[in-house]
Structures are given as C-alpha cells and as structure tokens.
Amino acid sequence: MKTDYTKKLHAGAKFPEMDVTLLNGEVKRLATPDNGMDWKMVVVYRGRHCPLCTRYLNHLQDMTSALREIGVDLIAVSGDSKEQLESHLEQLNVSFPLAYGLTVEQMEELGVYISDPRSPQETDHPFAEPGLFVINEQGTVQVADLSNNPFVRPELGALVNGLAWIRNPDNNYPIRGMHR
Fold first, then answer.
1. Which of 51, 105, 133, 164 can bridge 42 by disulfide, Cβ–Cβ 3.0-4.6 Å?
2. CATH classification of 19-166, choosing from 3.40.30.10, 3.40.640.10, 3.30.70.2120, 3.40.50.1220?
3. The whole model's pTM is what?
4. Which keywords annotate this record (predicted)?
C-alpha cells in the first residue's frame, strides 16, 4: 500500500508553467488564456476509456458561451495518446481545445490523483483522475477541485454561476481556502 501523499496545487498558488499538445500538433501553455479571455479553466479528465468523462466534456460544451461571457477560456487535457484522443472524438461533440499526452510527472505537478488501469482493455497507461482548475489573470489558482474517482466532479451550472459571481468586481470576493 502506498503511504506517501500527492502534492496538491493550493488555492492562491502560481499555476505551473506547463505545455501540452493539441491534436493539430500545436503546443499550448496550459494556463494561458486565449480568445481575448483573461482567466483559464483547465479540466483534467481520465481519458477515452471513461464514459463519465465523455458525458462531462460534452456537458461542458454547453457551458462554453457562458464561460466566454465572463472571460474564462477553456481547455481539457488527459494522459491519452494522440490515437486515443482521435478515437475519442467519435463520442465527443466539443469545440474547445483538447490536449493529449499529459505525463505522470505533469500529473504529479498538478497534484491530481493518478490511477493505474485495471486491465489492458481499460487503457494502457497510468491516468489522471478528474481535476479542474480556474486560473485568474495573475496566473494564480483561483479555484481547484480534485477527485480520486470519476463520480465526483463540480456541477457545471453551479460552477459557472459561481465564477460569474467571483468575477463581478462589486463582490470583491477573495480566493478562498487561504488559511495557512
């Protein structure tokens, strides 16, 4: 039994500078917003083998306009290979960027839980359990959500509504969870 613990990215911490690869071969800085946005949501998902991830990513597509309206760019990433991501596209209906090839070292740097496949039919590599990070305009972790299984993830409607509230300057809402 493994007794050491994973490192977690803490609220208020600088998000690591990490590059990921999109299907078209473009290399992106994971936390850098694009499309005129100033915040970035990074969704780490298990991979093609997970039907709950497929459902979550497809539901996340429904939230893209609401995220854009509040200035939050979006990317999703997994440890799948390029070929696994290409075959996963048959089940996905998303327009936001999907990256592949997240390494175990990168997963560890993000602090996500990592699982080994139960069988070769599930997948052929260790994979990240779900993680979701929202990075603000200073490159700081504003929101972090980590799970050790696919059944527990933020409800997307509540998350987007909460981000809209946080982003409203009239609310002057600080990063939560900063007590040391």
1. 133
2. 3.40.30.10
3. 0.94
4. Oxidoreductase, Peroxidase
